[in-house]
Design a protein that fits this description.
The complex is a heterodimer of chains A (167) and B (84). Chain A has one domain: Ribosomal Protein L22, Chain A (Alpha-Beta Complex). Chain A is 43% helix and 23% strand. Chain A contains seven helices and five strands; from the N terminus they run βααααββαββαα. In chain A, strands 1-5-4 form a three-stranded antiparallel sheet, sandwiched between helices. In chain A, strands 2-3 form a two-stranded antiparallel ribbon. With 84 residues, chain B is an all-alpha fold. Chain B contains five helices and no strands. Chain B has a single domain, classed as ACP-like (Non-ribosomal Peptide Synthetase Peptidyl Carrier Protein, Chain A). Chain B starts with a helix and ends with a helix. Classes of the chains: A alpha+beta (167), B mainly alpha (84).
């Protein structure tokens, strides 16, 4: 079965230095955390500092990757309107609200999928959204190969191997 | 005010170029200001100038586009600062 001709997707990727997130949290405390992250994101980002800040950095990367997918014409939506929600299975999903949800609607984007990873002091996120009839019609065949290629490219940065932790 | 903004950029912006070399209208993103460094700069500016950037300013891409636009935003929030 061939895909409809207007099927497309948007991809966003972002990379964050985990140490920057740790420094910001230590320097600005709740002012930083509450400005950028939702209560739900803060609630699941717990544990030893290296785990907590890697989780937060990956979530910040997801927010920025989502903004790249949304392609806001003027200003970016607030970070808290883009939330990474961890499912009981451990998989992460995106939940948009406010201006971010409005932008997705205006662009005719379908549900977005997100993948997070961190390794060697860096956290990264890839966000993909279907566009065109694929975003709202019957679920088309989805070839995951482009995501695999993107992940491999990210892992190649700083010579990292793609055998690290994935959320 | 512009000098104080440059000091904040130098301390928190992680720019690959010296902040003092930036012109008033130079694009900070083009100069290497990352999205996360921008958060630090924003919070440090709030501390330095005793202001709080409201949501509408944070949404505007233009607010943190350059040293000049930051100065204009702070001037809007704190007219006494702009006059000094």
């Amino acid at each position: 079965m061939s895909a409809p001709s207007d099927v497309g997707c948007r991809v966003g990727v972002d990379l964050v230095d985990i140490a920057e997130v740790a420094e910001a949290a230590q320097r600005f405390g709740d002012r930083y955390l509450s400005r950028v992250f939702t209560e739900g994101e803060l609630a699941v980002s717990v544990g030893p500092p290296e785990v907590r800040f890697a989780s937060l950095a990956a979530r910040f990367a997801a927010k920025e990757a989502t903004i790249k997918v949304l392609r806001p014409p003027d200003g970016a939506p607030q970070w808290r309107t883009i939330e990474v929600v961890r499912q009981p299975s451990g998989a992460c999903e995106l939940r948009l609200s406010g201006a971010a949800a409005d932008l997705a609607r205006q662009a005719g984007l379908g549900p977005m999928t997100v993948s997070l990873t961190h390794h060697a002091g860096l956290a990264a996120a890839v966000v993909v959204a279907l566009t065109g009839s694929a975003a709202h019609g019957p679920r088309p065949h989805f070839d995951p190969q482009p995501l695999t290629v993107l992940k491999a490219a990210l892992a190649g940065i700083r010579g990292g191997r793609f055998a690290h932790k994935e959320e | 005010m512009e000098e104080q903004i440059r000091e904040v950029l130098a301390a928190y912006g992680r720019l690959p170029v010296p902040a003092e070399a930036l012109g008033l209208d130079d694009d900070l993103s083009d100069a290497g200001l990352s999205s996360h460094a921008l958060v630090n700069v924003m919070l440090a500016l709030e501390d330095a100038f005793d202001v709080e950037f409201p949501e509408y300013m944070l949404r505007e891409r233009a607010t943190f586009e350059s040293i000049g636009s930051i100065a204009a935003a702070i001037g809007e929030l704190s007219p006494a600062r702009a006059a000094s």
